[in-house]
Amino acid sequence: MLSAHVDRLDRALPALRAASPTFARWGEDLGRRLVAGNRLLAAGNGGSAAEAQHLTAELVGRFDGDRRPLSAIALHADTSSLSAIGNDYGFAQVYARQVRAHGRPGDILITFSTSGRSENLVEAAVAATEMGMTSWAVTGPGPNPLAEACTDAVCLPGDTATVQEMHLAVLHMLCRAVERVVADAPPDPGERMPVDRPRVVS
What residues pair up with 155 in beta bridges, in sequence order? Predict the structure, then answer.
């Protein structure tokens, strides 16, 4: 059974490798926009929400090396907004309303979905278009409504577990591309430099 799990992942990896030029392009674009002051919004449901939050954590914190913090928000992480919007407007609007609140022209929305059929993600992509944002989707097998609603999309083959495992690789690929762009960018004039503080011995 476990060997079959690895076999499924092995069969899916050629599609991931074939899509790597797209992820390189996305990462370079994202890096340039983040350095310029734009923002990434990320969304998903269930395990895909965890992938979205993993990506934003790597960007706000760090991935491989030290560099400036980058503006990225996982839309499911604000549980008060999520529950209030769901209660007042319905679950289909929990991300779209946040996109309209936080998104600005030039920002990017990235969505992760194993099915590509989650209504709340499709509505978020529609809202991003209305806001003048770019929207990307990383999904399971296509075609699917989310991929069609976004500016650009990559649909990867496999069952739910395999697709989620590839999504983890995708977000790390994006981080590598972003950090290369940020490393080549001029220093952020507003960035605080580390200060050596005297050691206090009590």
Answer: 139
